[in-house]
Design a protein that fits this description.
The protein has one domain: MFS general substrate transporter like domains (Growth Hormone, Chain: A). The chain contains 18 helices and no strands. Helix 10 runs parallel beside helix 13, helix 10 runs antiparallel to helix 14 and helix 10 runs antiparallel to helix 17. It is globular, with a radius of gyration of 20 Å. About 60% of the residues are buried. About 0% of the residues have low confidence.
């Protein structure tokens, strides 16, 4: 136990590095606001429209920029100072939330405003891997990247506890305007932290035409590297058949479990509780030789647990199932960023992270799928169907990703 405690203490010492601490704080804010807004917007839209597909559409719009621009952002990130790119990304999200808050206070907020804002927020999200997480890797070095990603994803998971709960509470008490006002204040904190980052990030000279060349080189590298190809294949399965179920939590919470906005927020936060606990376990026990197994095993466990959530007859059992979806997702989330960073050559990490963003963006199709299916057979049945599909696709594609999980 003393060895484990010593290793965990060593990882926590990363917080002694000011730049890591600031980049980590930016992630805490961006993650937290993302989950807050997704819950608040999901409940708000469902109350206004009664359409599960409209709820899924909000998350789809947030993911669309990853699929459209992820590889371009990854290639372009090598040509500009990454700290500047980080500040601009956070600033754009602050201005988006500010616009929505003003519209809400004026009583003129419409569903199309939320869809458009989700799209612009997704651009900042698409920049996170090739900009902020690449900066984290550069700051801590290859030897510390596994621990750094554990702490960073742990922050994401902690925000999944607080964000939905806060979003539900704000929506129930102050309305949608209050939720976006809190977002604006939080983004202000993130911008201050980003401006204080001392590490600028490598900058590669070149004309605008080189962005396309670099983007294609990133895809070529992934195609020729079995570790990267297998890792990104599992990412596609997780996002296409797994993560899309989160858009159905407000629908299942209201229709099947008969919860109000506050109750739905607490229910959704259970996923974050489990994920935070999983991140702590990763910090204490994860070893490099187990990274691949944790990644693949976490994906399989997540798909099984989302099926259990959809079939749960009571809020208590549903919350317990979400607790385990979070626990299993921790292995996936932490190891996804870590495996990609370690497998990619240093000079191409931003490009490969851009390809990763594209693979995450493929999850857009999953939200379309679950949203349309929910309109036909109900949110619970649609969630079960997507989980089963994901497990089948994993089984059929094992020969490509097995090299990652051994």
């Amino acid at each position: 136990m003393s060895v484990i405690t010593s290793q965990a203490a060593g990882r926590l010492r990363l917080f002694s590095q000011p730049d890591f601490r600031r980049l980590w704080l930016v992630g805490v804010v961006v993650f937290g606001v993302r989950w807050l807004e997704m819950l608040a917007v999901g409940v708000f839209v469902y109350q206004r429209t009664g359409s599960p597909f409209a709820v899924a559409l909000m998350t789809m719009m947030r993911m669309l920029p990853m699929g459209l621009f992820g590889a371009v952002i990854g290639a372009a990130a090598e040509r500009i100072e990454r700290r500047t790119a980080l500040v601009l990304a956070v600033l754009s999200m602050l201005l988006t939330s500010l616009s929505l808050a003003v519209l809400a206070y004026a009583g003129r907020l419409a569903i199309w405003h939320l869809a458009l804002a989700s799209f612009f927020g997704g651009i900042g999200w698409a920049a996170d891997n090739p900009v902020r997480r690449t900066l984290i890797g550069d700051v801590v070095g290859a030897d510390g990247v596994g621990a750094a990603m554990s702490l960073d994803v742990g922050a994401n998971n902690a925000s999944r506890m607080l964000g939905p709960t806060l979003g539900g509470a704000l929506l129930a008490t102050l309305g949608i305007a209050g939720a976006f006002s809190v977002s604006v204040l939080a983004y202000g904190v993130a911008i201050v932290a980003a401006l204080r980052v001392g590490h600028r990030g490598a900058r590669t000279a070149g004309g605008s035409a080189n962005v396309l060349v670099r983007m294609l080189e990133g895809f070529d590298l992934v195609r020729g590297d079995r570790r990267l190809l297998g890792t990104l294949l599992v990412t596609i399965v997780y996002n296409l058949f797994g993560w899309s179920f989160t858009s159905m939590i407000p629908v299942i919470g209201q229709d099947n479990l008969h919860l109000g906005a506050g109750g739905i927020g607490v229910l959704a936060s259970m996923d974050g509780v489990g994920a935070f606990c999983g991140a702590l376990l990763m910090m204490f026990y994860a070893r490099p030789r187990f990274y691949g197994r944790l990644y693949v095993g976490g994906t399989i466990g997540y798909l099984l647990m989302l099926i259990a959530f959809a079939l749960s007859p009571t809020p208590l059992l549903a919350g317990l199932a979400l607790l385990f979806t979070g626990l299993t997702s921790a292995g996936f989330s932490i190891m996804q960023a870590t495996l990609v960073y370690l497998a990619a050559p240093p000079e191409m990490r931003s490009r490969v992270y851009g390809v990763l963003s594209v693979c995450i963006g493929v999850g857009l199709l999953g939200f379309v799928h679950v949203g349309l299916l929910a309109g036909l057979v109900g949110a619970a049945c649609a969630t079960v169907a997507t989980g089963v599909e994901g497990l089948l696709v994993l089984a059929l594609t094992a020969r490509w990703w097995r090299v990652v999980g051994v």
